[in-house]
Each structure stands twice: as structure tokens, then as C-alpha cells.
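Hi,

I'm pasting everything inline rather than attaching a file, because the server keeps stripping attachments. The sequence lines come first, and each chain or strand is labelled.
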Amino acid sequence: EAAVTQSPRNKVAVTGGKVTLSCNQTNNHNNMYWYRQDTGHGLRLIHYSYGAGSTEKGDIPDGYKASRPSQENFSLILELATPSQTSVYFCASGDGDKYAEQFFGPGTRLTVL
Amino acid sequence: GDSVTQTEGQVALSEEDFLTIHCNYSASGYPALFWYVQYPGEGPQFLFRASRDKEKGSSRGFEATYNKEATSFHLQKASVQESDSAVYYCALSDQGGNYKPTFGKGTSLVVHP
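And the predicted assembly:
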């Protein structure tokens, strides 16, 4: 069974602070993704990666950085958090194939005060 | 760029009703099409896919047929149950080596007993 875990599951941050969201997958998938989910917007792709050392911009990358230090780990970094980044963030992994489904983690609820 | 449109933001039905959730897409070439389901407090999970014209994908009583001419992939189920209450996402992946997924905004299904 595919396994994607995220930490922390809940986070409260202050405006201007740095936030790091972590994701780990044990599926040995090449691709990993970060999304945010907001009412009325559905799932929006922030950054993604094809493998260790690679990161690509998704549809809404502004204000976010990503890091893929290994096959298993993919982090999302908010250098200067803002209240508009309050959201639920999902990490996912998948094979590097157009037909491959994605396996999602349980999500991280981030509140920026 | 690629896009996925889900017409209904919310659908309310009674048990044993027939379900249709509309999904239309815009993409170059021949994308793969997906449906995902998200239950409260969880990450989205893969439901099924289709990858060529007229192919039917199905799982758990849900089905959808790839219609390239109409650029559609509508989700249907003959008789819904209360346990089907969830958010449903239509998604596509583009062709070529750059597997960049695009999700619709989601449709919230509420089934009343």
C-alpha cells in the first residue's frame, strides 16, 4: 500500500515567520507534488519534482519554495508567511508517467496569524 | 494552458438517486483523465482513469467515459448511498515527458438518507 506522510499535521505561524512543511513517501515514486486546497479553488499545484535535486514551479508558486533532497522527501518552504497562505496543504507522489495516479498524504492545516 | 471545468460546485441527492457530475477539459493532444474522491479529513484518493477516446473507467459503482469530441469525462453512478458523500475531483495529465497534473475545483456530493 502506498504511503505518504506529512508533518506537522497542524501548524500555527506568525506573519513574517518561516514555515517548513515536510512530506515523506515510501513508494519509491519519482514524482512528488505540493498542493493547497481552498474553498472555491479546489486543488492548486504549487511545486512539483521529478526526482531528487529537482523542483519545478506549478501554477501558484509565488511565496513558496520547494526542496527535494532525496527520493523520499519533499519540503515546502514559506520564507515569509502571510495570512493569505492560510490553507490546507497536501503532498502527493506518483510514478513519472502521464497515466499514473497520485497518492496523497493526509494534509497539513496551516494557519498564519 | 490545460484546464478542467466541473460545472457543479455542490450536488445534493437522496439515497438511490442517479448521480451525474459534469467534467469538461481543455488540453492539447491526448491527456489522461482521472477521477479522485476525498472524504472529510482525508487526502484525495484515486478512483479511476481513462486514457483514450471512448474508454470507460470505473470503480466502486462509479463510471465515466472518455469523450474526446465533447472533451468530457462525466462521472456517473446509478444509485448513490449516504457513504458516497464526499468531494469529487476531475483531473488530467498532459502528454509528453512533463507530467503536470491539473485538477478541477471539485464537486461536493451530499447524499441524504
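The interface with chain A takes residues 6, 9, 31-32, 34, 36, 41-46, 49, 51, 89, 93-96, 99-106 of chain B (CB under 8 Å).

If the labels don't parse on your end, tell me and I'll reformat.
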